[in-house]
Amino acid sequence: MKTDIKALNFEELNIAVKELSLPSFRAKQIYKWLHEVGCTSFDEMTNLSKDLRNKLSDIFYISCCEIEDKYVSQLDDTVKYLFRLTDGEYVESVIMKYKYGYTICVSSQVGCKMGCTFCASTLAGFKRNLTAGEIESQIHAAQKDLGVRISHIVMMGIGEPLDNYSNVLAFLSNVNNENGLNIGMRNITISTCGIVDRIYDLMESDLQLTLTISLHAPNDEIRSKTMPVNNKYPIDVLLKACKEYGEKTGRRVSFEYTLIKNVNDSERNALELANRLKGSLCHINLIPVNDVEERGNVCSSREDIIKFQNILKRNGINATIRRTLGADINASCGQLRHLKKKG
Ligand code: SAH
Is the pLDDT reported for residue 167 higher than 70? Predict the structure, then answer.
């Protein structure tokens, strides 16, 4: 079994180069080819000898994402890719254009185990974790295809990033490295459904990224019905971790709250949410629920969404309504899905 060389972080690649008795400058050369240029084969590494390229390809492979399908939104230039991975599995990624640059929403797993009842990513179950190289390859493939530089990353695609913790950490280290894509931690957001143990681990690594929590409910009764993870980590335990995260890292945690008609969108729900979060420095992103055919959730009315936002604001909670992008290509939050491997 060969190892994905793109999944190694800079230190690990240095060790691997040493073990092959190569001079240490080779590590930086190879690293740049993999992470700055985004090579998909050793033959592209033109400043390495043929012998060395052969030697590397005997031991390693380079993970990559082949474009299987590409969808361009007619509404807002959002692009969604269906990528085929080396083993024939598929993941989806979305590129959004903002005033400040291009943002990619990457997937971290093939499918998802979390089972949230409103989300498409979990419908076909969980297949496997992505390697750090596969997460990063989504960026390289999209950049090459679009001919643009992606400056921001949101880990809000398929999968639960904190359920693939060590690979996600290696991915972050590589995209942040100055010999790689060199994307600043402050331009990176990780979204989690609330795996509290890993939030504490992340706190220890003290990265200056943005952590956002998929909260989606003001109390345990509603949350446990819609998000099974709440049975293991109830809201109080989750919010305590978020508070400590903010204190330790100095980074304000944000919350996502998907509004579903008659599930979590009443005035009472808004008040309960406000009371729960009162006194904590936080930001809530309200997301009108996006259509997932199999799920049958109904979006709250515009009027109810604004009412909900106003109750939060009146109670001192900073709340914005998220703009929906890529609605015509099923590229919005919760719409990315695990497609079964063909054949
Ligand atoms: N597993 C992580 C990363 C996924 S991010 C997490 O749960 O945070 C995708 C975001 O879209 C999450 O906030 C998710 O809860 C939300 N989402 C899922 N289904 C949705 C839907 N149908 N409409 C709007 N948002 C949805």
Answer: yes
